[in-house]
Specification:
The protein has 387 residues and is mostly helical. It has 15 helices and no strands.
């Protein structure tokens, strides 16, 4: 039996755009944490650092779908260089303002402009969709991209923090800027795999988010992201409470490994079950597997609960991406995919902020109640979408 992932790369140019896209998407995982580490070192506190990073995150959530909407209308080759130039240039100016000790308001202005960076994971998925639209290989391609997203968020943050601490404070965001410049340049130069510009239907104007079905998928992605944000914060707090702060990285790695393994397996299998029913199953499983998090009493128990919970993250994400490909017209595909990625990012921010408040107020394990609430939202969105 042929390896389904090797079959994917028989498409001419596929290896090149996946590698370029992987490099170009690294800034999304490196920039926020890099700004926090840089400003905390140079300014001596986390209030300003967190506020600037939050400005960047919110700007990205707003700007990325608009950039993708322009990509659908004018093409990747024309829009991505401009978006990367604006976003990357603003990030460079933010670093210069930090180094030159410019007024603090300049940091917020350039952090907001840096949010114009394109959602490269959506751009890569759009190319896969153009190649394998309507074929079983598309699910495998989406599975591969979900795993690469996981790898990006496993590698990016510690790399950015390490560069800031070991080399010089601006090194992490600067590395993200270089990755953006090199990755986007290599990506747009590959014209042969660039998706064609599909004509817009005059009877279906406006944004892809106008669809109720797409809004339900975005709601589910926000809830999924909330679970991830809770896990990031509570794992650190729980490990500190147990007197083993270094174990937090092990717990987080176990969650990511579970998600990656499940994503790879899901992409390699072929199911006769319709996508809406798979989506329902994924929502139910995601909701149920948040419950064991409350039962963890030590690091081993938490790691085991995390592994089980992570098993259903990537498959649910893959099915959601496949559904949006069917729900939105080709002329709005990149925007639709980007809204899902944006929803995930918004959820991570909500989960991190909400669980942080719960942990401070009621203790480490209390943060998991927010994950359970998010699991209920996932279940409700999945059931409503299935209906």
């Amino acid at each position: 039996m042929a390896n389904p992932y090797s079959v994917l790369f028989k498409a001419p140019g596929s290896r090149a755009f996946v590698l370029a896209g992987m490099l170009a998407r690294m800034p999304i995982s490196m920039t926020g944490i890099g700004l926090i580490t840089m400003l905390a070192q140079l300014q001596g506190g986390y209030t300003l650092a967190g506020s600037v990073a939050a400005t960047f995150a919110l700007a990205t959530a707003f700007c990325a779908p608009q950039v993708s909407r322009m990509v659908d209308r004018f093409g990747q080759g024309r829009v991505l260089p401009v978006a990367a130039l604006v976003g990357g240039g603003a990030l460079l100016l933010l670093l210069l303002c930090t180094r030159l000790q410019a007024p603090q308001w300049t940091l917020f202005v350039f952090a907001a402009l840096a949010g114009c960076m394109p959602s490269m994971s959506a751009m890569v998925r759009a190319r896969w969709t153009e190649i394998y639209r309507g074929q079983p290989e598309l699910q495998t391609a989406y599975a591969l991209e979900s795993v690469l997203d996981e790898v990006c968020f496993i590698v990016g943050p510690p790399l950015s923090v390490g560069l800031c601490v070991v080399v010089f404070p601006e090194a992490g965001p600067l590395a993200a800027l270089l990755a953006l410049a090199i990755g986007v340049t290599a990506f747009v130069l590959q014209r042969s795999t660039e998706p064609a510009i599909h004509p817009h239907d005059r009877e279906l104007p406006g944004s892809a988010i106008a669809s109720l079905e797409v809004r339900l998928l975005i709601l589910l992605m926000i809830a999924l992201g909330t679970i991830v944000g809770v896990i990031d914060v509570v794992s650190v707090a729980f490990a500190q409470q147990q007197g083993q702060p270094a174990a937090a990285s092990i717990v987080l790695s176990v969650y990511a490994i579970g998600s990656c393994l499940a994503g790879l397996a899901f992409g390699a299998l072929k199911f006769d079950v319709p996508l809406p029913r798979l989506f329902l199953y994924g929502g139910v499983a995601t909701a149920v597997t948040t419950l064991p998090l409350l039962l963890a009493s030590n690091i081993f128990g938490l790691a085991l609960a995390m592994f089980v919970s992570g098993l259903f993250f990537a498959p649910t994400l893959i099915v959601a991406m496949a559904l949006v490909e069917r729900l939105v017209p080709p002329a709005k595909l990149t925007e639709g995919l980007t809204w899902l990625v944006t929803g995930l990012s918004i959820g991570v921010a909500i989960g991190a902020a909400g669980s942080g408040w719960l942990v401070d107020a009621f203790g480490a394990r209390s943060g998991f109640w927010l994950a359970i609430a998010a699991g209920v939202v996932v279940l409700g969105a999945a059931v409503q979408s299935f209906r």
